[in-house]
Amino acid sequence: SPDFLCFVFVCININIFEFDIVERLGTQKSEKLNMASSSSSSSSIPSLFTTILVLFLIVSTAESVKSPFHPRDLLPHLPRQVSWPILNSLYGAADLLPTFIGTASSENDSVQWKGACFYENTAMLEFHNKSGSEFGGGTLHIKADKAHSWTCMDLYVFATPYRVTWTWYFISRHHTVEFPEWDGKAEYEYVKNKGVSIFLMHAGMLGTLQALWDVFPLFTNTGWGESSNLAFLEKHMGANFVPRPEPWVTNVTTDQIQSGDLLAISKIRGRWGGFETLEKWVSGAYAGHSAVCLRDSEGKLWIGESGNENEKGEDVIAILPWEQWWEFEQTKDDSNPQIALLPLHPDVRAKFDVAAAWKYARSMEGKPYGYHNLIFSWIDTISENYPPPLDAHLVASFMTVWSKMQPEYAANMWNEALNKRLGTKGLDLSDVLVEVEKRGSSFDKLLTIPEQDDWIYSDGPSTSCIAFILEMYKEAGLFGPLASSIQVTEFTIKDAYMLNFFENNASRLPTWCNDNDNVKLPYCQILGKYRMELPGYNTMEPYSHMNEQCPTLPPKYNRPDNC
């Protein structure tokens, strides 16, 4: 088992570390100890390894006796060069996510579970009015028992739509979490009916700290950050990052790039690299950003991009000359982008109404990036879009925390979109959660309601990078009579590059396409050290209500027909 292997590694490294210390001391005692360790077993002096092993075996054979330690509990006490490789094999960035345990709503409705440390836990909620306020408060009672060792601990997060708190338990006994006063009638009614949500950090304190260590570099603009992003995607998606032959920049001649050609972009370091890594993980997309090519009436090539940073640092929809965009990607984009050009098929290109595409692009130029509906293109189902241990409860708790920390950001990211789904206006997140319960529905069902392309938000139409491109495709006639029954704001980048809109004859690709690579891709990678994968590329015929009910569970991301 993993625990046994961990124990073996710990013991071996303790033994090595012990003799390393003794050897460095250079004392007579060390010589005797080293001689004894190399002699026959009958005359050897028990080492720390042997002592620990014997103690572990003794307590492990006695079911009634608690183990004095867990092998993992020893890891922090070992040298970093010994403990860190073992920690990396046991924990990863995904271990930072808590697991939803259940809800405690009354003294008569307790919840029971097995923790990471304490194997028998129960919780119940007691309402009281110690504060003397109108709606009183409550005490969450938790009994933790049957710890698997003397040194382990459990870390918990407790949440309602109005607050989030956390604590950890080291001792087997009765514990309490106090809520001195409910935040008005709304929180009181919510907790009375739905309870306080309980989340377990299943990796424990040590695993959570290790997971934080793994998450932090995902967003750093360093070589460490880049390798961390690649390792995360390899581990959780099964992605491959095969280096391409140099040079990693294609000598592009723009005369072979036409209006409607798609640019798939994968960023692998820095702020956007970390964000895209998480986006790829939950959606199954092997690219995290996109842009589109447009030629004007004079033949000049332009790039349309939703998510281009303007002089004020705002992410907006921009239309840039190819030369400006391409120079930035090669010399100034510190996210180390990998870029592939996906040319349209000649038959599709013949349908592409360039004038209509330009009209749409100009109408959107300068508008904000589509944060409003960003997460809703990912969530289509109640439970099959959340990589474990993610679920709708955790999403709601994350939203609650972020709403308290950044209320304006929260309103932009999800509040308006949730109100659209309810047919309400101005409700904040906590009010939305209460309203959903009043209607006899649930938050997980609310998240699955499809986004509508014609919804207008407070700052105008909301289109992410790929929604902007696909809306342009709709206006340009590529979806034909299906346009009115397809909501492109429900598409992820993967959904877009799977459309059968692109070139399928390698002989018609630009002459410079993949000219430096010994592997001939069905599209043209024009920038990047690593060869870009786009599983399912150019295989999906459009259909009515496309991508409104599709699961996205890693690592295979299986997709049923007509979802």
Structure write-up:
This is Inositol-1,4,5-trisphosphate 5-phosphatase. This protein is α+β, with helices and mostly antiparallel strands and 563 residues long. Helix content is 36%, strand content 17%. It has helices spanning 2-25, 28-38, 48-61, 80-90, 184-194, 204-215, 223-237, 270-283, 322-331, 346-351, 354-364, 392-405, 407-422, 429-438, 443-447, 465-475, 493-498, and strands spanning 99-104, 111-113, 118-128, 137-147, 154-160, 163-169, 174-179, 196-200, 262-266, 289-295, 301-309, 315-321, 338-342, 456-457, 460-461, 524-527. Strand 5 (154-160) and strand 6 (163-169) form a beta hairpin. The model is unreliable at 1-78, 80-84 and 86-91 (pLDDT under 50).
Secondary-structure blueprint:
Elements: H1 2-25, H2 28-38, H3 48-61, H4 80-90, E1 99-104, E2 111-113, E3 118-128, E4 137-147, E5 154-160, E6 163-169, E7 174-179, H5 184-194, E8 196-200, H6 204-215, H7 223-237, E9 262-266, H8 270-283, E10 289-295, E11 301-309, E12 315-321, H9 322-331, E13 338-342, H10 346-351, H11 354-364, H12 392-405, H13 407-422, H14 429-438, H15 443-447, E14 456-457, E15 460-461, H16 465-475, H17 493-498, E16 524-527
Antiparallel strand pairs: 1-8, 2-3, 3-4, 4-7, 5-6, 5-8, 9-10, 9-13, 10-11, 11-12, 13-16, 14-15
Helix pairs in contact: 1-2, 1-3, 1-4, 5-14, 7-8, 11-16, 12-13, 13-14
Protein name: Inositol-1,4,5-trisphosphate 5-phosphatase
Features:
563 residues; alpha+beta; 3 domains; 6-stranded antiparallel β-sheet; 4-stranded antiparallel β-sheet; 17 helices; 36% helix; disordered N terminus
